[in-house]
Amino acid sequence: MSDEKKSPLVIILGPTAVGKTSLSIALASSFDGEIVSADSRLLYRGMDIGTAKPTPAEMQGIPHHLIDVADPDEIWSLAIYQQEAYNRIDGIHSRGKLPFLVGGTGQYIRSIVEGWHIPPQEPDLALRYVITSWAEEIGAGGLHKRLERIDPAAANEIDYRNLRRTVRALEVIFKTGERFSELRQKQTCRYSPLILGIDHPRESLYTRIDHRVEQMLKAGLVEEVQGLLKAGYAPDLPTLSAIGYAETIQYLQGDLSLAEAVALIKRNTRIFVRRQANWFKPDDERITWFTASPHIEDEMAAYIRRNLDGIKK
User: Fold this and answer.
1) In this structure, is the dihedral angle defined by the CA atoms of residues 279, 284, 288 and 290, taken in order, positive or negative?
2) What letters, b where the CB count within 10 A reaches 16 and e where it falls short, cover 36-66?
3) What is the DSSP pairing of strand 287-291 with strand 192-199?
4) Burial of 93: CB neighbours in 10 Å, binned 0-12, 13-18, 19+
5) How far apart are CA 222 and CA 218, in angstroms?
C-alpha cells in the first residue's frame, strides 16, 4: 500500500524542555487532533512534577493518550508500548481525528516510524539474575561497557544508568546468540508519517532546563517523591531511577544535600539531552526541523497544511 493511501500521523519530537507539549497542544487544537504520548516517563501515575507531565488545564481539552496508564511498579516493555500506541492511533483515526505522536523517547518513536517487528522474548529470570548479580560486582557503568563491546549499536542507544535496559539487552543477546540491535527488524510504517522536529540552541536549551528544574522544586518535587516512597514504592524501582527522582531519593536518604541533588538533576538532564540527539539526528532526511522562535507554531501549522491533504480544520 502506498504512503498516499495510508492514514496520516503527525510526529512532533525533540529534546527535553524544548517546548513540545505546548506546541503539540496548540497544533492539535488547530487540526482537530488528539495526542499520543511518546514519553516513557509519562506512562506512570503519581509521577507528575518530575516528568513535567501536562496538567488538565494545560491540555486545554485535547484528548491525551498513554499518560497515567500504569503504576510505578508496572514496567512497560517496548513491545507493550508499541501495541498500545498502535491501538490509540487507530482509534483516533476511527473517530475522524488527526493523531499527533509527541515525545522525546526515541525508541518509542522509531518503533512506530520504522515499523519495528519486536520478536516476543519471554524473560529468562535465572539468566537475568546472573546478569544483575554481575552488575552488582562491576557497577552499572561496567556492565554497560561489556554491552558496548558485544553490541556497540545497542549500547549507544541505552543510557549507562539505565541498568534495567542494559540487563535486558544482554539477556536477549546471551539467550539468542544475536545482537540485540539486530533483532528489532524494520518493516514499513503503518501510517504516512510527517515528522516535525523542534530545535533549540544548546546553551539556550540548557538555560531552559535549569529553569524547569527550579520550577519543579518549587512545585513540590521533593514532596512528590516522598509521597511515592510512603505509598510503598521501592526506591530502587526502575521507574524511580528516572532523572529527578533518583537524585531526590539520594537527597532524602541523606546521600546528597538538596543543592547537590538539584545540581546533579541539571547535569544529568543535560547529558540526557545529548543522548537524545543519537535518536534525532539533524541529518535525518525524514525529519523537518524547526528552530524555536515566536513564529514556530505558525510555521509548523503551515507545513502540516502543505503536506497533509484532506485534513479537517
Assistant:
1) positive
2) bbbbbbbbbeebbbbbbbbeeeeeeebebbb
3) parallel
4) middle
5) 9
Q: Which H or E element spans position 101? A: strand 98-103
Q: Taking a C-beta distance cutoff of 8 angstroms, is the pair 301, 209 a contact?
A: no
Contact between residue 288 and residue 296 where contact means Cβ atoms under 8 Å apart: no
* Contact status, residue 101 vs residue 36, Cβ threshold 8 Å: yes
Q: Are the C-beta atoms of residues 187 and 117 closer than 8 Å to each other?
A: yes
- By CB atoms closer than 10 A (0-12, 13-18, 19+), residue 257 is exposed
For the record, the C-alpha cell of 208 comes out as 531552559
What whole-number distance in Å separates Cα of residue 257 and Cα of residue 130? 34
Cell 546471551 belongs to: 174
CA-closest candidate to residue 173, choices 211, 129, 124: 124
- What gap in Å lies between CA 130 and CA 182, rounded to an integer? 23
β partners of residue 65: 36
Per residue of the chain (313 residues), what is the pLDDT tens digit?
Answer: 444 578 999 999 999 999 999 999 999 999 999 999 999 999 999 999 999 999 999 999 999 999 999 999 998 888 899 999 999 999 999 999 999 999 999 989 999 999 988 766 667 888 988 999 998 999 999 999 999 999 998 898 788 888 888 998 898 889 878 888 776 666 789 999 999 999 999 999 999 999 999 999 999 999 999 999 999 999 999 899 999 999 999 999 999 999 999 999 999 999 999 988 888 988 899 999 999 999 999 999 999 999 987 544 3
Its pTM stands at: 0.83
Which residues lie closer than 8 Å to 265 by C-beta, 6 or more apart?
213, 243, 244, 247, 248
Cell of 237: 524501582
